[in-house]
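Objective 1.3, modelling of assemblies. Example input:
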Amino acid sequence: MRALEEKILREGKVLPGHVLKVGGFLNQQLDVAFLSEMGREIARLFADAGVTKVLTIEASGIPLATLAAQALGVPAVVVKKHASANQSKDVYSAKIYSYTHGNDYTAAVAKEYLAPSDRLLIVDDFLACGNAIKGLRDIIGQAGATLAGCAVAIEKQFQGGGDELRAQGVRVESLAMIASMTEDGLTFCR
Amino acid sequence: MRALEEKILREGKVLPGHVLKVGGFLNQQLDVAFLSEMGREIARLFADAGVTKVLTIEASGIPLATLAAQALGVPAVVVKKHASANQSKDVYSAKIYSYTHGNDYTAAVAKEYLAPSDRLLIVDDFLACGNAIKGLRDIIGQAGATLAGCAVAIEKQFQGGGDELRAQGVRVESLAMIASMTEDGLTFCR
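Predicted structure (tokens):
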């Protein structure tokens, strides 16, 4: 999505440790009109995928997931982050390693919101190593549901998570895919 | 909003400790089409309030805040929750008492996203004692910005937070206002 690439170049800032700061429009301050366009683009890409629900994880993916679900005309389900394991028998849960914080956390969702008949589209703001998506796939598997694909705003392709998923046959669509990134600039995969 | 009251009666569940479970449409599984209607209703109520940005706090208010901002045609700003105090000079922060978890947490937002010229509409899913909104008002004050009002999906009027804000001259609009609530049923303020 060329408009997103241009926005990243104009407003994004590369910080040490492969961090791309786009808090001005994507996940702290939300440019909702632009995010709505991104949601419509995700809906266009997955129009024929039979998506029944969008699945995301707290917290920064929620705005885009909400707007993609709006454009697709389906509900969204938000997986919660917990500091410690939740052993309730009423939830599906998965342990996820956070690259940003350097620790594990437990993601959980009430079983009642995922059914074996669901075809789920995972939506998130970033895809780097893919740890969050691995955890969500684990949860989808526990529910006996189907993964229709993954849609992310920004993929940091050089961190490998997206290509690993594609190699496993998962459809992954990134609205912007970054090939390389330093404090001097970044380049996109085209 | 009559449609919301009916949905609460149909799908909500009252749990011990004044907890109203509406995770099936409001904050875990999101009925995005219905939330979009709620966002448009908030925009209608505050159409003449000169709102420049919507302000919310992680995580369960984000979907409605996003959709209210979409309907108002303004950006949204998401205040982050931190486990411990963030002393950075680049953020505004406030300590907030969590009724649900029985502890304090620090809410913080980068200074660059709030300007003295901003007229902010606080949007959240629930208003009970009003602790989160007090923290957000504190942050708005630190920024020298103006509070245009508060819009929430569900106010638990009997917990007093909404009326306390109104007594201080704050405009508070609740799409559904609960007068009383037990495991046997609930009644709305009309």
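Chain A has a mean pLDDT of 94.
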